[in-house]
Amino acid sequence: MGLRFLSNNSGGAAVFMLTVIPVFFMLGLTFALSGYFIQLKSRVRKTCIEESIEIQKNIIKSEQRLFKMNPLSTTLRIELLAAQADLALQTYMENPVGIAHANYLINSIKSQQESLDLLQKGIIKAAEVYSQIQTQLMLSNLYKHVNEMGLIWKFYLFVTNSIHLSQAPEFAVRPDIEETAPNYELKDDYKSRQQLVLFWHHHYQTSASAEHFIKTETNYEFSCGSGPNYKGGKWSIEIKGDKF
After folding, report:
1. pLDDT (tens digit, 9 = 90+) per residue, 95-124?
2. Smaller CB count within 10 Å for the chain: N or C?
3. Distance CA 161, CA 170 (A)
């Protein structure tokens, strides 16, 4: 009688364990999946915002360097006009020495303008190339983060990610005149042209090996980035991003 009671208790305990363990496992897996998703979103958002801000900082620094050359550009332009006016005067007066001196000044000023023009265009080109490199590195880092997280969960989840730029940053300046060594200024729509906006689409669903424990599927879309703002002679960077 005692043996039968003990046997019944053992059987009931076994049934209880077989019922409860999968429930606890499923709950644990559900919490783990929530943690995975929160951690992944945080890493993507942090990387996107921090690196896009650095890209904006470097573009702004190059723009500041370019704008600091405007006074020299203006000075050379005024000096050239003055030399050309002097040449006209010396020519009218039929003064060979004055004509030679005016031509010398004109050629010297134009040479300085050509050097300045090369420097200005070099700053613009370098900023554009560096911005493109930084942007590609940011995308690589983001893919690295999402792939690393996906590998950790590859037994339980089938994961796909799509990350792309919906707006690539542009060096948004323009010359005031179409001549050698002009002054440069921001384009009227510099805010929209210079902003960086990234789009991320994330999808995961439980793999076939995990579906008998839990079955779930999630699609998530997120955009983030940053853009410049120039107001009252001061620069700032505005963060753009969806709320979690």
Report:
1. 999 999 999 999 999 999 999 999 999 999
2. N
3. 26
Q: Which of 15-29, 42-56, 78-92 has the highest mean pLDDT?
A: 78-92
- Any residues with CB less than 8 A from the CB of 126 and at least 6 apart, and which? 62
**What angle do the packed helices 2-67 and 96-152 form, to 10 degrees?**
180
Query: CB pairs under 8 A, 24+ apart, for 127-135?
Result: 127/58, 127/59, 127/62, 127/63, 127/171, 128/171, 130/58, 131/55, 131/58, 131/59, 131/169, 131/171, 132/168, 134/51, 134/54, 134/55, 134/58, 135/55, 135/165, 135/168, 135/169, 135/196
User: pLDDT by residue (tens digit) across 114-171?
Assistant: 999 999 999 999 999 999 999 999 999 988 888 887 666 666 667 777 888 888 999 9
